[in-house]
Inverse folding.
């Protein structure tokens, strides 16, 4: 779920998300940090995870603000009892930084390249 989508009709969104959670659906706020939502909404939305937008991952390892922001989002997720997921992980330095700060899951070319459904089926057949 993107931050922008969540903000269109907050009351309706909360009701819908609660029903989905009751059905066992796990929910993540995608592109976290790029939208305009209030941090107050994090207390209201019944989500499981925050996905750190790739724009905060790209320059991790330099002395820029991106790494500090990514680490702060991971820390905030931990404080709220949520998982932290980082998008756009492409280097070992990014992986090491995010894991050192307790990021739960990583997505990006370092982890796996995009694949067609048939390739995924073959992979699962070989590894199950």
């Amino acid at each position: 779920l993107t931050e922008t989508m969540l903000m269109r009709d907050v009351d309706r969104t909360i009701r819908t998300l609660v029903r989905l959670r009751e059905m066992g659906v796990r929910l993540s706020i995608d592109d976290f940090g790029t939208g305009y939502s209030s941090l107050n909404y994090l207390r209201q939305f019944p989500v499981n995870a925050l996905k750190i937008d790739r724009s905060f991952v790209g320059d991790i390892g330099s002395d820029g603000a991106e790494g500090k922001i990514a680490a702060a989002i991971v820390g905030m997720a931990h404080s709220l009892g949520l998982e932290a997921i980082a998008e756009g992980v492409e280097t070992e330095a990014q992986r090491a930084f995010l894991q050192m700060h307790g990021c739960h899951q990583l997505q990006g070319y370092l982890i796996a390249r995009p694949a067609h459904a048939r390739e995924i089926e073959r992979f699962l057949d070989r590894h199950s």
The chain is about 45% helix and 10% strand. The longest helix spans residues 65-79. Residues 71 and 100 are 9 Å apart (CA to CA). Helices lie at 3-6, 10-22, 40-44, 65-79, 92-100, 117-126.
